[in-house]
UniProtKB/TrEMBL annotation:
This is DUF3283 family protein. It comes from Vibrio alfacsensis. It holds the Pfam family DUF3283. InterPro entries: DUF3283.
Length: 69
């Protein structure tokens, strides 16, 4: 079964993008390519409160999955 992500509403597309960004930043953190300040920088650039929550939840999810403290 395939899904056409372009058909999603804009807020759902943005949640997917935030999740991808969180995954990439946690990977970079794990690989010592950045420090925890990179996550805080990204978080400070998000203006919407709901989007901040989504991003923070994704960061925590990927930290658990990737075994990052």
């Amino acid at each position: 079964m395939s899904f056409n992500l372009s058909l999603l509403p804009p807020n759902e597309k943005n949640k997917i993008e935030l999740d991808k960004q969180a995954s990439f930043l946690v990977w970079k953190l794990k690989e010592a390519k950045c420090g925890p300040e990179a996550i805080q920088e990204q978080l400070s650039m998000i203006n919407d409160a709901d989007e901040k929550v989504v991003f923070q939840q994704s960061v925590e999810k990927y930290k658990r999955v990737m075994g990052v403290a």
